[in-house]
Write a structure and sequence with these properties.
Order of helices and strands: EHEEHHEEHEEEHEHHEEHEHEHHHEEEEE
Distance between the termini: 17 Å
CATH architecture of the largest domain: Roll
Strand content: 15-25%
Helix content: 10-25%
Structural class: alpha+beta
CATH topology of the largest domain: Dipeptide-binding Protein, domain 3
Radius of gyration: 23 Å
CATH superfamily of the largest domain: Dipeptide-binding Protein, Domain 3
Shape: globular
Amino acid sequence: MKTMHRTARKPGDPLKIEIDTSPIRLNPLDTQDYTSKMICSIMYESLQDGYNCRIIRKDPRTCQVDIHPDYLGDAEGVVQTIIYHLTKENQSPHLGSFLNIKQAVPYVKGLVSSDQLGVNVKGEKRFEVTLDEPSDEIEAVLQSSFLIPGTAGGDVPENGPYRFKRTFEKGLEFERNPQYKMTPADHRTVQTIQFILNVDLEKSIGLYEANQTDVTCHTQFHHSNMRYRQYADFKENHLPMLFTFKVKDDMLRTFIQHYFDKQKLAGDLGHIITPTDSLIGIWESGRTPQKDPPLLTKEEPIRIVYADYYPNGEIIERLAGLFRRAGADVSVSRVSHFNDYYHMDKSGFDIELHLFLPAYMHELSYIRYFIRDISDPEKKKTIIDAIGSEKKKELFGLFENTTHYCPICFGKSLYLQDPCIEGFSVKTDGLLSVHDVKCR
């Protein structure tokens, strides 16, 4: 397979990774934006079954975790971070992920002390977790990016393969962590990683060809560049990031579900996205979008807002076109920077493009988020019953929409990577694997 023509790498050159937005907060315990999570994944290493630990299911309610001797962190540190997340005063966004631990709910309510929780240190590198109810979710939670060994006060050391060094004009720089021993470094190990900010999508390929980046941004690969799929540089895999419309009006949400053609959108975008009819995973309901939308009678324009990152604009343009064909006026607002979009008051808009990245790789991470937008108590009960009986097909159908959210698609990781670089990958959770990155 042929490779792209690039300026030759020099010995000792940093690995330069393109990003399309600056990180907001580099703290793995509470960061919410995707770029921050991605960068945190090279600084902080979570537990990974089969690599730096073994997770053993002793019985339906009990897990034993044996941590590798070379892992930077011990059992006490992991338990202390669990306590941090469960301490209500810390306002952790991940408190709900640990509520199935035995005595967790009474602890959150202040009825029992932390030493009564179902988390027990059994040795320097061993701990056990006991649940209130059997669940296969706990393995995913224990391997989540927000569970890093630390203190009950929320202090976590940089235990990953790279540590922060400096900021510079174009981005951030990280150096190999000399304390990291899970994968020992050698003379070919990349010693420096830089994240290079580029907000101009059209310059991405040129920067790569000029050796100003070694890995292009994997969330903004334009569909017109899919011809590069034939090159050895090209990488592709699914991303768990879910694109949704958050719709204020029930009539508009129903209209979108009946007439918005996700399959055609995906085809027109070169299948850089994967359509879905469920909020909790890739699933097709079998519903065929209707062709001729009825007239929409609205006195005011339909107001839509989105963050201006690819392919958000293409998705919104397709939605606005559908409304205009139905005779409605449309007002579209785009926000240039994700941080501004994240914090802005969107209550004045009818529809917003909402992206969701699960906190851990399990459908319950999606369910915990979207079930909050279901007001019907009977539907909630049906969902809880389906979770308990592990009726996954039924669950997918129950999440075709909530009161305000309807699904569009899942993203993909699409990027170019210098073939001279080995050991780098974007994992199935959308975070980076760089523990053994080398230059040939």
